């Protein structure tokens, strides 16, 4: 009999795991608290690394489809000084497929494919039991179900994580405010040229503005500020005009085109950036494991989703190799995941300190290090 496996969370990592299990003919149940696939905006764009996210899609048999949907030109990056001077203007070569971009919604739909997701199933607690008795999953509606393995792919504030670890994410010192520009090529052609095919970034002391092109003429804008956790206290976050005014004050004196990226936003969403300790591990618990942000939440510098995708695919492959011994598969997976996650957590934590830090020259130097052969 095939094991009963539940994946909690329908983000990239959870869906990659479920899709590879499905490819190997193994049953899997995806549990998602959102009531439907379109219950909320899917988010911005992701760059999938050749040796991480793209490798996961290859394991799922989806790499060719990904390449049809992705935007290699989205790898372009322009960096400005706060006065608008162009400091760097990098564009990928015609055959550069190292980190092509794909909108999160397109990636989600690609991974969903034939999978059946049980929408509206909010997990409140996961209770490991004695070997052979399975793992109990409790839901917000009072129902309970038992699985042989529960995989926590439920993000930063994972409910599954509580079954194996008492550690919670900590504030990094950086708050991000996200806004969007719609139909930018028609409504704001000057800003469309500024952003180009990829991204434009401006770094100042302890703050930055990054704008990134998504598909369909959509641009996401991220203002990041190093501030105490309560740095936005007293600001009515539901009042778009008040948030816009605060942003323009925080970036006062910057070049007008950069301020226009903030000025013309359609809505403003604050996000306090949290992270787990770089060396987060746990004592192995039979019947439960974690992947992605649930296991190693780190600053959003391009690694998290890539790691989650690869981890989901690798875990599924290990299960497929020996479906009769889930404990051996999850132990092997955790031992493979932890050191790689620690490496990337260290890199991204240091990167955030340089990108949103007291010396803007550090951000420019980091870009040059990444682009150097």
From TrEMBL:
Domain FAD-binding: 5-321
Membrane-spanning parts: none
Subunit-level organization: Monomer.
Alphabetic keyword roster: Cytoplasm, FAD, Flavoprotein, Monooxygenase, NADP, Nucleotide-binding, Oxidoreductase
Free-text comment about domains: Consists of an N-terminal FAD-binding domain with a Rossman fold and a C-terminal substrate-binding domain.
Reactions catalysed, as given in the entry: a tetracycline + NADPH + O2 + H(+) = an 11a-hydroxytetracycline + NADP(+) + H2O
Requisite cofactors: FAD
Residues the entry annotates as binding FAD: 47, 104, 293
Coiled-coil region: none
Family: Belongs to the aromatic-ring hydroxylase family. TetX subfamily.
Species of provenance: Streptomyces cremeus
Role according to the record: An FAD-requiring monooxygenase active on some tetracycline antibiotic derivatives, which leads to their inactivation. Hydroxylates carbon 11a of tetracycline and some analogs.
Highest taxon of source: Bacteria
Main location: cytoplasm
Protein name per Swiss-Prot or TrEMBL: Flavin-dependent monooxygenase
InterPro entries, per the entry: FAD-bd, FAD/NAD-bd_sf, TetX_monooxygenase
